[in-house]
């Protein structure tokens, strides 16, 4: 549900007079302290970005011209509002429409700020963390006015290199003798940016409304302007009423975000550190799971068991062997919720028989010993607040997804008056890819759920609504492991390769397809129990729209079944591949870099036509360069002759396709070189689809560009098959799996 109120012209108080960009000019001691800094740089309500990576808005003062970035200052009236979630969500949303998003923290505890590192990673900014911090709190207390001057200077320098700046205000950690909201308003006024207010949605609707109005007034007293407000952490049962209560606040765009307890939950690793604990058994990787609640096992064990909930951390004195053994048995049972961790407190030695039970169950559940007594352990664990930081991937993904799905992002961007860039950054491309996959959801089979990366990807895919999933494996084992990892794969279907109905159906069809090769029904039955063959048969038979594999299998193991079962499209001679190369400002297509070692001229032409079709699928208007060591007619030899012949075949088969060859890479991509080597070509200097003469050149080429330029390489994307099957690198990251599933889903839409 989305809630918003959009107004055009916020009112100012009688004490303020309009300044640059409509912001009030300071008229008190704050203004005098910063008088030398006006006109303010930054806040740009009413400005427009012309789009493009290098586009700027410029202002002149008496001495110089400087660049202005459109910016927003995120502030809150108290601690615990979830301001970090809003900042993270807004950064992620902006990167989908604006090429150069920057982040800035006026105040930080130190120059090593974990949350800033996370924001920088999500923004894609190349700025260093040091350049994105105004001052530390120690520097502020040593000289407040000098510190504030440094904040403004640091912001100005950062704003010159970005289209939009998200300013994450202070976190109620270290302000002495000054209301923190007033301090943030002061900074916002003097760098000339509007404020996005974040308030806690807990309390009555009228309380939330009052909190916003009082805060807006306080910000106005600091000569800053509030353009939007987010009521965050709203309980489900009052969220709609809160939205109604705040909708008519004059001059402010409003929206709400629900309470998501997971975002405040600490990881088991954080609990271990806080309790001065020691991991005595269990899977260390599961320490990264969130402890979503805490239960003290201080009652009869039957009452403890009936109070267990998913993701719970249970604290039990180490000398209560009966309770410990019962909890271990519950964790091993599929009929009880999966705990996130077990803390044995009190510093007691664990009874040998209890330890034998735990070890014998081979539980991956982290079991931690702590010297603290029950009260201290429970108080410490129960009061911990988990932080958003790099490394907490699932929590970050939940935060971003929730913000994008629940907040009225469109209204917030309108309040900042952000205009989309014309360039295509990697983040923009990936966002568009996911949006397209959501528009017509397809069913994709993942045959490797025994790999934790695949399970983590499945959790994110379901949460983002990218595709419907089928996982191949033993359902109990797959769902148990997902529960241990704290993942939600309830929306996914888990299918065994020994499912009698499907096995017989697939075996009969495979035997039919391979009858000319002498494959019997019995041989087929054995063959299709292999996960790659089973998954490919699912696609072939229409039980899934596509398959993604390769995280734990070789490329050959993934794609050979598709050659035998799915086969090539009519009019396509061979299966080939491309990599989608996501550069800083555009998308290029490289083929073939993974499948065909020595293509003939006819095969090379086929690869070019297929690659152009793939480019169109993903929003790239193809201009094809048939690469060689020679441009035009100057080169001689079998290699260049093959490329020349292939180019003519392409022109004959696809006369409307813009293609040039043979052509060197520099002439294909560089307009200056193209003007000299191929002045009459419509492709030279503007190519975006590059066809390499053989696999060696293609593989070397894409990896050289990837490593030297920092480009993101998505692929290999298989093309030419009747239905989509795509291969993963065995070193694939979770995000790589997600992207490949989205690509496969988009291919299946066509």
Secondary structure: number of strands: 25
> What Rg, in angstroms, do the CA atoms define?
30 Å
| Biggest sheet: strand arrangement | 5-4-6-3-7-8-9
CATH architectural name of the largest domain: 3-Layer(aba) Sandwich
Domains (count):
4
Task: Give the CATH H-level superfamily of the largest domain.
Answer: P-loop containing nucleotide triphosphate hydrolases
Low-confidence stretches: 1-68
What structural category do the secondary elements indicate? alpha/beta
A few lines on this structure:
This protein has 28 helices and 25 strands.
Output the keywords.
750 residues; alpha/beta; Rossmann fold; Udp-n-acetylmuramoylalanyl-d-glutamate--2,6- Diaminopimelate Ligase, Chain: A, domain 1; 4 domains; seven-stranded parallel sheet; six-stranded mixed sheet; 28 helices; 25 strands
Explained architecture:
The protein is α/β, with parallel strands linked by helices and 750 residues long. It starts with 28 loop residues before the first helix and ends with a helix.
Topology overview:
Blueprint: H1 29-33, E1 57-60, E2 65-68, E3 70-75, H2 83-94, E4 101-108, H3 114-123, E5 133-136, H4 137-142, H5 144-159, E6 164-168, H6 180-191, E7 195-200, H7 205-221, E8 226-234, H8 239-246, E9 253-258, H9 268-274, E10 278-281, E11 293-296, H10 301-306, E12 312-317, H11 321-332, E13 341-345, H12 352-361, E14 367-369, H13 374-383, H14 393-406, H15 409-416, H16 426-439, E15 443-446, H17 452-464, E16 468-472, H18 475-484, E17 493-495, H19 500-513, H20 521-527, H21 531-540, E18 546-549, H22 555-565, E19 576-582, E20 587-591, H23 601-617, E21 623-627, H24 638-653, E22 658-663, H25 665-669, H26 671-677, E23 689-691, H27 695-709, E24 712-719, E25 725-727, H28 734-749
Parallel strand pairs: 3-6, 3-7, 4-5, 4-6, 7-8, 8-9, 11-12, 12-13, 13-14, 15-16, 15-18, 16-17, 18-25, 20-23, 21-22, 21-23
Antiparallel strand pairs: 1-2, 10-14, 19-20, 19-24
């Amino acid at each position: 549900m989305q809630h918003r109120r959009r107004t055009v012209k916020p009112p100012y108080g009688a004490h303020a007079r309009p300044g640059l960009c409509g912001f009030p000019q300071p008229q008190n001691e704050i203004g005098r302290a910063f008088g030398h800094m006006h006109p303010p740089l930054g806040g740009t309500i009413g400005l427009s970005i012309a789009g493009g990576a290098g586009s700027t808005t410029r202002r002149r003062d008496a001495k110089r011209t400087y660049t202005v970035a459109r910016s927003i200052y995120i502030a809150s009236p108290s601690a615990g509002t979830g301001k970090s979630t809003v900042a993270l969500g807004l950064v992620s949303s902006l990167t989908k429409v604006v090429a150069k998003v920057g982040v800035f923290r006026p105040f930080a505890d130190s120059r090593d700020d974990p949350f800033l590192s996370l924001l920088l990673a999500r923004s894609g900014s190349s700025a260093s963390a040091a350049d994105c911090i105004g001052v530390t709190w120690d520097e502020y207390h040593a000289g407040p006015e000098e510190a504030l001057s440094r904040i403004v200077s640091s912001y100005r320098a950062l704003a010159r290199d970005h289209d939009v700046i998200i300013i994450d205000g202070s976190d109620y950690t270290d302000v002495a003798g000054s209301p923190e909201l007033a301090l943030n308003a002061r900074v916002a006024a003097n760098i000339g940016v509007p404020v996005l207010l974040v308030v806690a949605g807990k309390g009555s609707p009228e309380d939330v409304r009052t909190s916003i109005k009082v805060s807006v007034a306080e910000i106005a007293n600091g000569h800053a302007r509030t353009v939007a407000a987010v009521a965050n952490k709203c309980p489900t049962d009052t969220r709609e009423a809160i939205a109604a209560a705040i909708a008519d606040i004059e001059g402010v765009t409003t929206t709400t975000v629900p309470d998501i307890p997971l975002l405040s939950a600490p990881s088991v690793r954080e609990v271990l550190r806080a309790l001065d604990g020691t991991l005595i058994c269990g899977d260390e990787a599961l320490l990264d799971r969130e402890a979503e609640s805490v239960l003290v096992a201080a009652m009869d064990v039957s009452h403890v068991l009936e109070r267990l909930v998913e993701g719970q951390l249970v604290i039990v004195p180490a000398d209560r062997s009966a309770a410990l053994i019962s909890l271990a048995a519950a964790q091993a049972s599929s009929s009880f919720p999966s705990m996130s961790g077990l803390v044995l407190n009190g510093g007691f030695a664990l009874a040998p028989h209890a330890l034998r039970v735990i070890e014998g169950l081979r539980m991956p559940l982290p079991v931690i010993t702590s010297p603290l007594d029950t009260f201290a352990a429970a108080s410490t664990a129960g009061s911990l607040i988990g932080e958003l930081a790099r490394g907490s991937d699932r929590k970050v993904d939940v935060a971003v997804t929730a913000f994008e799905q629940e907040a009225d992002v469109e209204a917030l961007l309108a309040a900042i008056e952000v205009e989309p860039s014309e360039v295509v950054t990697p983040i923009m491309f990936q966002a568009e890819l996911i949006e397209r996959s959501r528009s017509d959801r397809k069913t994709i089979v993942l045959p490797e759920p025994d790999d934790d990366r695949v399970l983590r990807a499945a959790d994110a895919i379901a949460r983002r609504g990218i595709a419907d999933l089928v996982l191949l494996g033993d359902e109990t084992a797959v769902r148990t492991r997902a529960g241990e990892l704290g993942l939600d794969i309830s929306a996914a279907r888990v299918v065994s390769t020994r499912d009698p109905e499907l096995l017989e159906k697939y075996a009969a069809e495979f035997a039919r397809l391979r009858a000319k090769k002498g494959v019997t029904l019995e041989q087929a039955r054995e063959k299709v129990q292999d996960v790659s063959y089973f998954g490919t048969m699912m696609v072939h038979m229409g039980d899934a729209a596509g398959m993604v594999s390769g995280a734990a299998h070789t490329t050959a193991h993934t794609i050979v079944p598709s050659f035998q079962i799915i086969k090539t499209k009519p009019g396509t001679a061979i299966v080939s591949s491309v990599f989608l190369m996501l550069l800083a400002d555009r998308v290029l297509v490289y083929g073939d870099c993974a499948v065909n070692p020595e293509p003939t001229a006819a095969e090379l032409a086929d690869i070019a036509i297929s690659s152009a079709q793939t480019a169109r699928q993903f929003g790239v208007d193809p201009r094809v360069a048939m690469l060689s060591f020679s441009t035009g007619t100057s080169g001689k030899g079998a290699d260049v002759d093959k490329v020349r012949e292939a180019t003519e075949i392409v022109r004959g088969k696809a006369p409307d396709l813009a293609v040039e060859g043979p052509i060197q890479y520099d002439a294909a991509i560089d307009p200056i070189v193209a003007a000299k080597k191929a002045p009459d070509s419509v492709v030279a200097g503007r190519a975006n689809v590059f066809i390499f003469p053989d696999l060696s050149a293609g593989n070397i080429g894409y990896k050289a560009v990837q490593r030297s330029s920092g480009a993101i390489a998505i692929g290999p994307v298989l093309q030419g098959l009747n239905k989509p099957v795509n291969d993963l690198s065995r070193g694939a990251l979770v995000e790589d799996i997600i992207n490949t599933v989205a690509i496969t889903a988009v291919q299946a839409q066509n």
